[in-house]
Specification:
It is built from 5 helices and 9 strands; from the N terminus they run E-E-H-E-E-E-H-E-H-E-E-H-E-H. It is of the alpha/beta class. The strands form 2 sheets. Strands 1-3-2-6-7-8-9 form a 7-stranded mixed sheet, sandwiched between helices. It starts with 5 loop residues before the first strand and ends in a 5-residue tail after the last helix. Pfam families: Abhydrolase_2 (PF02230).
């Protein structure tokens, strides 16, 4: 596992684990300010900004999977290949914090959100909440696990991952009986602004998880 992850908060009596996953070409360090805002809102949370497992094939930062030559057809396979390391990272921090899946939140942006969302589709999802900013599923939703909450936040002007990806995901999760919220932000492109951060913190500033 790449050791560039940044531990942002380690409260003496942590009740929740929040793991942050950055986007393509970014890093744990770049995403750390989001973790700092979450830690201030949730002083009982063990917060970690996790570093991508591989150097970006686009030249800077880190990535969870390569997008060179990626297509709708091969994206699921690439994410499936990346999933074991992703799960390993989650398990590592759960062990380090002493906090299990039932009190773990995965919060990701773009490629990090894709990985977090797709982790919900495996047989035993590693978290009880997924906050996806500008994310998407790699393929159609297959299941909506009982007890897992999804919070989808997306800029309406996103030119990288179209907002319709979150709209379609929310519709599919609801149809499958899932617990999902959807927030579309006018004027926001592929990024996180004050509104998106406020929404993410609001979903995390709850009693469970």
């Amino acid at each position: 596992m790449h050791d560039g992850s940044i531990v942002i908060a380690t409260p003496a009596q942590a009740r929740h684990l929040v793991l942050l996953f950055h986007g393509l070409g970014s890093s744990a360090d770049n995403f750390a300010p989001v973790g700092g805002a979450i830690a201030r809102a949730r002083p009982d949370a063990f917060v970690v900004s996790v570093d991508g497992h591989h150097p970006s094939t686009l030249g800077s930062g880190r990535e969870w999977f390569s997008v060179v030559g990626i297509t709708e057809e091969n994206r699921p396979e690439r994410i499936a290949d990346a999933m074991p390391l992703f799960q390993e990272s989650i398990a590592y921090w759960q062990k380090a914090s002493g906090i299990g899946a039932g009190d773990t939140t995965l919060a990701g942006f773009s490629q990090g959100a894709i990985m977090a969302l797709e982790s919900s589709q495996i047989e035993r999802p590693p978290a009880a909440r997924v906050v996806a900013l500008a994310g998407r599923f790699a393929q159609a939703v297959r299941r909506a696990p009982t007890g897992l909450k999804f919070h989808l936040i997306h800029g309406e002007q996103d030119g990288v991952v179209p907002a319709r990806a979150s709209v379609e995901a929310a519709r599919a999760l609801q149809a499958a009986g899932g617990d999902v919220t959807l927030d579309l932000l006018p004027g926001l492109g592929h990024g996180i602004d004050a509104r998106a951060l406020r929404l993410a913190i609001g979903y995390l500033d709850r009693s469970h998880p």
